[in-house]
Amino acid sequence: MLLVSSSRAGYHHGDLAHALETAAMQLLAEKPAHEISLREVARAADVSHNAPYHHFADRRGLLKVLAERSMADLVSEVRTATADVDPVSALIAGGAAYLRFAVERPNSFDVIYDPTVCIPGDPSEVMAPLIVDLENLLGAASAAAGLADAEDFLGVWGLMHGLATLCAAGHFPLEAALAAYDASIRRMLPG
């Protein structure tokens, strides 16, 4: 008689997708996405090593889900930061949330912008509206603060993303990046 290990009980709980995605996101908190394997996700979710293939077609499918879940988290943090404050404060707070996300969750930030996972100009059906949401949140904050031209918004985005990338890579502390972003935005504002 073949006995099934009780350690595989999680597989039968009826929500394999959620268990795998949760395990993958926990792994992403510890290591870069390109270092996470489907077998490792299975171990972390306490399911058989073949179970991830019921949810992810392949490793790229896993990375795509990691990017989508990470982008949803980033959008949520920026939305919360920009809510119920005046326009300039919304632009400063939205950028600060973006910077903090990059520094506090660098692996999530990296997988969002990995061009092999989210192909520029060809995002997944899940990622596309998230990108639009993030651009709308930050664009609306920028426009409301007086930086309404497309060139202005591109400058704001470049400043925010550049500082986030450099800060997450350890080139300077978060406090310095936040201060530089705040000061630069205030200098960009009209009048």
TrEMBL record:
Pfam families: TetR_C_33, TetR_N. InterPro entries: Homeodomain-like_sf (IPR009057), HTH-type_Tx_Regulator (IPR050624), HTH_TetR (IPR001647), MT1864/Rv1816-like_C (IPR025996), Tet_transcr_reg_TetR-rel_C_sf (IPR036271). Residues 14-74 form the HTH tetR-type domain. Residues 37-56 bind DNA. GO terms for molecular function: DNA binding. Keywords: DNA-binding, Transcription, Transcription regulation. Coiled coil: none annotated. This is AcrR family transcriptional regulator. It comes from Microbacterium natoriense.
